[in-house]
Amino acid sequence: MNANKLTLRIMIGMLLGILAGYIVHTTAASPESMKDTAGYFTLVSDIFLRLIKMIIAPLVFTTVVSGIANMGDSKSVGRVGFKALTWFILASIASLLLGCLLANLFQPGVGLGMELPETGAATNLATQSLNFKTFLLNAFPKSIFESFSGNQILQILVFSIFFGLAIASLPAKSTESIRKLADEGVHAMIKVTDFVMQFAPVGVFAAMGAAIATNGLGVLATYGKLIGSFYVGLVLLTLILIVAGWFFLGRRVFTLMEMMRSVMLLAFSTASSEAAYPKTMEQLRKFGASNRITSFVLPLGYSFNLDGSMLYQSFAIIFIAQAYGIDMPISQQLAMLAVLMLSSKGMAGVARASLVVVAAVLPMFNLPESGLLLIMAIDQFLDMGRTAINVVGNSIATAVVAKWEGQLGETSDEVIDEIDGIAEDEPLGEEAPAVA
């Protein structure tokens, strides 16, 4: 299934899901029957997401081990990691500042006149353990099997780095078989990804159907100003990331964005970064980024470079303050951005991570934690957008680091033809063009 056909099928699945969800929402005999029907949609989407999750851990492990084992030495790993983290930090700062700026400009919460809720109003989000000490401790696995079973990408990454460095430090002759096994494991996991992605349009249909059947289209109108201004921010952030990428990649950044179109649609419609991970890795390889860079920088980005989520966090906190008529001076907003910069890192493995971060930061600035209930009803629609932009940020970051390292080859002619719409069908799992 080539990228153009996958994009088309995902779009069709998304539109049919919206239509099916709307029919269920408007024709259900009772709220209970509506929820029951929506549950069947959720069942199908959950099955697809489980298929995705089952390949995340082995895919991260095999690609990271293969990449580092072939990278050479620990100095190369440290150099690549430093460059990647530098980009991540700068992108995070830009995302947070943009969210803060747009929330002050559009003021989506002003005029709502919400009364302060009772102390202890529940949000059903665990926030008490969110701190830097806990994050640092949890970055290191106590059991690799537990990390694999929980799809803890950061923990898997840490173990894979140690394992890959150990292989790289041993004589080539003694590790030839295990290097070959890791390389072949990458190809096998790409083929498994190919099989799983055949079900992507069905999973997208079910995910959209469940969201619309439960909430209806009316919720979009009720929160129109909030949703509209947030998506304006996402568009602006995308343009900023593309411009930043253009300085290093030139016109090829537009080729990359075209190749990521189907991945962004998948991330948007499922609101799942995990669903987009395998396809993002594959498209980066087809773009020309070397395996050793992609396999290291991309999983690192999933823990430290969630640009859309960063924009959302600063935007949401100021929205809640506006909704309750609480003034936040510029000095307090800048302090909030500093706290978000530290507290949000490594939260990718936490369920509803962005909401958890926001809920944890609210009490630090005397804002009602239960104010998060205001946006929970529409968080699915906000999550779709921020997840798609996370894909944009990580794909550009990986390509730029590959360019810095001299590990960015040319995009194959077949991919260029495919983008132009004139290529023949190409298997999803076909090996990427060789690079230096």
Mind explaining what this structure looks like?
The chain contains 20 helices and no strands. The protein has about 425 residues and is an all-alpha fold. α10 (about 225-250) crosses α11 (about 250-260) and α10 runs antiparallel to α15. The longest helix has about 40 residues, at about 30-70.
Describe how the helices and strands are arranged.
Elements: H1 3-27, H2 31-69, H3 74-106, H4 132-138, H5 144-149, H6 153-169, H7 172-197, H8 200-215, H9 218-222, H10 224-249, H11 252-259, H12 261-270, H13 273-287, H14 291-304, H15 307-323, H16 330-343, H17 353-361, H18 373-376, H19 379-404, H20 413-419
Helix pairs in contact: 1-8, 1-12, 2-6, 2-7, 2-8, 2-13, 2-14, 3-10, 3-14, 3-15, 3-16, 3-19, 10-11, 10-15, 10-19, 12-13, 12-19, 13-14, 13-19, 14-19, 15-16, 15-17, 15-19
